[in-house]
Write a structure and sequence with these properties.
about 250 residues; binds manganese (II) ion; about 30% helix; binds glycine; 7 helices; alpha+beta; three-stranded antiparallel β-sheet
Length: about 250
């Protein structure tokens, strides 16, 4: 996580002049190879609406003036353990008012999910905590065809149109570690001290989605951190600015 932070710093510096996602990928990979074994998985560098394509890996899009740039990347050290961190940051260094509304909602969901990481909790408790916040936020933005509570019912889950993926996976030597573990030990199992999982809620408004007001279309945001389950709760291992104000201050400083 520490080296990954340095690589994210490199990316922020490179965004001052970068015009293409490949420059972001290159800046990240340079640090990964300099201080680690490699990137732990293919870097996702997605500007603008490319962020709405999960696991975007072409990384060949243009970076425009008011784009958000989603960077999902982790350095793997020589012990072969990898980080898995995502930040979605404004190429200009400042969020637009519209981007900030969506960003702050995703961040609120992440805070709620991280709070739910503690031993004995169900693996999916952080996910449900995040979905609750996102559903209420989507309802407040007028994006749901019903109330948040109705949207959250298991038979509805209408928020999924915009959330697209789960909130957590285990993390270790493989970025999706223990993917073949028994369901009762993992997806339906309890969190235990020593486990490391990601917390990575997101919102994705496709460019052509007519259910979304035009101003939100093409915005894709994910915020991902790596969290250790401790004896009493959790410790966030990744240290990259997350709150919108902190992201802007970080970018201004660099
Ligand atoms: N980088 C892939 C993931 O976040 O799961
Ligand atoms: Mn992840
Ligand atoms: Mn990731």
């Amino acid at each position: 996580c520490k080296v990954t932070r340095k690589a994210f710093d490199d990316v922020v510096r490179c965004l001052k002049t970068a015009k293409n996602e490949r420059e972001v990928e290159g800046a990240f990979n340079a640090r990964a190879r300099l201080e680690g074994n490699d990137a732990g998985y293919n870097v996702i560098a997605a500007a603008g609406a490319n962020a709405c394509i999960l696991h975007w890996g072409r990384n060949d899009g243009r970076i425009k003036k008011n784009d958000l740039v989603l960077l999902d990347a982790g350095v793997e050290l020589n012990d072969l353990y990898t980080a898995d961190i995502t930040r979605t940051i404004p190429s200009s260094g400042k969020f637009t008012a519209t981007q900030r509304v969506v960003y702050d909602l995703v961040r609120d969901a992440q805070v709620a999910a991280i709070e739910a990481v503690k031993p004995g909790n169900h693996f999916l408790d952080p996910h449900w905590a995040a979905m609750k916040v996102l559903a209420h936020g989507l309802a407040d933005l007028g994006l749901l065809p019903c109330s948040a509570e109705e949207a959250l019912l298991p038979e509805n889950q209408f928020y999924k149109r915009y959330t697209l993926h789960g909130t957590s996976h285990m993390l270790g030597m493989d970025v999706h570690d223990c993917a073949h573990a028994r369901i009762e030990r993992y997806r339906n199992g309890p969190l235990e001290p020593g486990m490391v999982l990601t917390i990575e809620p997101g919102l994705y408004f496709q460019e052509d989605d007519l259910t979304v007001p035009a101003k939100y279309r093409g915005i894709g945001i994910r915020i991902e951190d790596d969290v250790l389950v401790t004896a009493k709760g959790h410790r966030v291992l990744s240290d990259v600015p997350r709150d919108s104000d902190d992201v802007e201050a970080w970018m201004a400083e660099l």
